[in-house]
Structure formats: structure tokens, C-alpha cells
Request: fold
Amino acid sequence: MARLSLNQATVKRATVAEAVEGCVRHGIESIGLWREPVADHGLERTAKLVADAGLRVSSLCRGGFLTATDNRAALDDNRRAIDEAAALRTGTLVMVVGGVQGDKDLVGARHRVADAIAELSGYAAQAGVVLALEPMHPVFCADRGVLSTLSQALDLAERLPSVGVVVDALHVWWDPDLDAQIVRAGPHIASYQVCDWLTPVPADVLLGRGYPGDGDIDLVRLTRQVAATGYAGDVEVEIFNAAIWAAGFDEVIGEVARRYREIVEPVL
Amino acid sequence: MARLSLNQATVKRATVAEAVEGCVRHGIESIGLWREPVADHGLERTAKLVADAGLRVSSLCRGGFLTATDNRAALDDNRRAIDEAAALRTGTLVMVVGGVQGDKDLVGARHRVADAIAELSGYAAQAGVVLALEPMHPVFCADRGVLSTLSQALDLAERLPSVGVVVDALHVWWDPDLDAQIVRAGPHIASYQVCDWLTPVPADVLLGRGYPGDGDIDLVRLTRQVAATGYAGDVEVEIFNAAIWAAGFDEVIGEVARRYREIVEPVL
Reply:
């Protein structure tokens, strides 16, 4: 399981210490952290905790939310997020770029994202951090992420230093152009995340994620394609799901490891 | 309001007779019908009712659901739907092509759709009916429609006789390639449908539609683009929304007409 990473959001109620302990207990060598629980535990303390446990930090979630017409405060916050990623010794800051801002101007919002990422990329490069742009499933276009396809994210990653992309199965699986865009993404993939798409979509669409294997995504095919690009980084399991959040951490982390070994690892 | 069409699903609880009466009362000259209420009223009786009221039938909803590995029964049902469209004197059968079939084989499902549409297109041409392929928002890829973009639908419409596309604002608004695909769609647009995307998405994602103007879609921009292609057909207002379904038909139809006059008609 050398490349499995537990994204902390999968055990949302766990503290940083509990998540780290769970990884160690289950032989998981890498963790994806979130800013809020890291702040709760303390940035330097978290860096030490993770290092002492022998874990890698596969990514920090998350920067972004850059679509406001006045995004100066957001840019400052993103610089802090870059510093935090560097302090945690991860080279990957996941970026959820923000949605339409109530003015119906999707085209304008996308331009503001491109400008903001360009502005942040120099700072990120100096810090040794890649801004990992996460294309979001179009169901989140209005409120979370106006980058809707891998193609859009790659248009930025190809022309800016220290900018990469996240391939999150849930966000990209439906894309008719996925095969070609995964090939194109190869050198720019900063993070590969897996979970599954559940049908019917639950009452809160944000929580429509299941364990790998429980939904409609062909994760074997996708993982094989990502591996074929030469991507050699961690594979994060990131699941937002009310029932999984309500379950015991140990049970959840064990199931994550089991699904990874069963579905993902054989085709890496 | 010469080009406004009331899609019957907007007043889901209304019978065909009630929907037709509402159109006449509000000066709406066209209606989009659904197969089930038409069957309830009787096919020939509906054709006569609509003709006597002086209404056009802008479309019949819906054929499709062709992704099963054995789709012979579905093909038969689609031939009946084509016959029904012809009997109702509409040239447009809206096609919702079907989702992934539980086997995670999205690529295979898309191939089956292409084959099935090719098989049906000759029959449709003979009946004088256009199969109007409706790209569905990717949130419906698993359970309703594996055609996720206008580009995919156009790949079929461009090479098959009697095959066109539906531009439904709700399904296409997020697409980063929308501007170019609308231009490409020009001669193939068989139906233009409007409603709005509501945020947050309600508990049933199918019902996340609002009156034009109430959500995040720039319908003025989109309508202008559709009009610029030379599209001269009807504009259907199709809204799935629990609160709108619970309201009185007269109130709803009046509001549909008001929004159309306010937002759509000025830019047609």
C-alpha cells in the first residue's frame, strides 16, 4: 500500500492526531490534510506529528475561492495556504477555485480565476508548492468551482509555472473527452483522488460519494489510464458521505485500505 | 409571445386539456407535450384538441433510454414514440438517451446510444420527425443521459439524417466550450428550452430548476447566442420544481409568460 493516502475529509470528525494514528495503525504511509483541522492542532505541531509518524503529506486542502470581483482577501488567504503547505512539507495545494458569484457571469468568473492563478503561481513556485487545480463536477459550477473540465485546468497548468491539476474520479468520470485529457494531463497531475459516484444522488449533492467500488465509476479503467501517463504519486481516497462520517474511524480507514488493495493497487 | 411554448412538465399535475386551456387563456401559441398525459387523454383526441385550440406542438417528450445491452424493447418503444410525434404533428421528439447500466461501462453505453440512434434515424426520417438528442447535465450521467455535452450530441446529429439536438439551458450552461458548440449547433437545433439553475441544489437534484431569472444562468447571453445561429423555432419553458408543481396552473402559466417576455423575448 505504498502509494495509498488517506484524505482527512474521509474521516471528517477525526482530529489530525486521530487521523495520523489511524494511518499508522493500518499501514498507510501518506495523508491528505485540510487547513481547518491543521489549524486546530497547530501548523508546526502538525508538521512534527506527521514527520514523527513517518507519514508523507500528499496534499493540503485547500486554496481557491478566487472568483469574487474583489478577490484581494482571497489572494492573501491563498498565499497563507501556500505557506502552510510548505510548512507541512507537501508540494501540493489543492485549489477549489470558486463558483459563479450571483451575477450570472460565468465567463467573467473563469477569467478572474485565470488571472488569480497567474498571480499566485510565482509565489507558489518560490515556496516549492504546486497549485493543484481541481476541475469540479459541473454540478458544483454555480457554488464551488467554475473549472468544470480537466481540459480547462490544463489550459492553465500548461502555461503557468508551479500549476498542476487534480484528477478526482468523482469530478471527471463523466467527461466524454476524458481519455485524451488524461494523456494530456500526464506531466501535470499533482494529485489523483478516488471515490465513487452514488446513484441516486443524496439530498446533499456534496455528500454523494461512496467507497471505491460502490458506484458507477470504472475506477480500474481510470486508474490504469492515470498510471499509463507515468504518474507515480500518491492515490488519495477522499470520500464525503454522511454515513461514512458517522462510522468509527478505525472501521472506515480499514475499509479504505481494503478497497484500495482490491481495486486500485492491482492496476497501478 | 409568438415563439413561447409551455412545456407540459412545468404544470405536471395538469391534464392535457388543462394545459391546453391554460396556454389559450394566456395567449401562448405552442405547447410541448409528454407521452404519458397524452396517452391518458388519447393520442388522436389530443391531436384534435391541440389543433382545435390553434396551438402548435413544439415537441413530444420523450424517447430514449437506449443504453441497455439488450435494447430491442426500447427500440420498439422509440418507434412508437416517433409515430406518436407524427400523429401530434410535431417534428421534434426529445430524446433522453439513458444512463450507465450498473456495469460501470460508460464508454460502452455511449456506443450503444450511437448505434441505436443510427438505427432509429431512418424510421424517424420516414415519419418526418427529428430525433432531438438532449445532452444532459453530467449530474444525470449515471441514471439518465450519457450524452453529457452538446459536442457529443452534435457528433451524431452531423452525420445522421433526421437527428438534431436540444439546447436546454439547464443542461449546457456550465460547458466551457458552449460558445463554440452553439455556433456549431446552429442548423441542428431542434428545440431550445429555458429554465434556471438553483443554488443550493435541492434534495432531489432533478427538481433543481427555477423560473428563468431566478438562478445562475445568463439566459440573456445564451438566448442571444441561440438566436444568432438563425434558430427560428419555439422557446420552451420547462421547469421541474416541487413548489411550482404545487402551485395553481394559472399562476404558473402566467409567471412563465411574464418571465419569457421579460428575459427571453427582448433578445430573440
In short: Chain A is about 45% helix and 15% strand. The two ends of chain A are 11 Å apart (CA to CA).
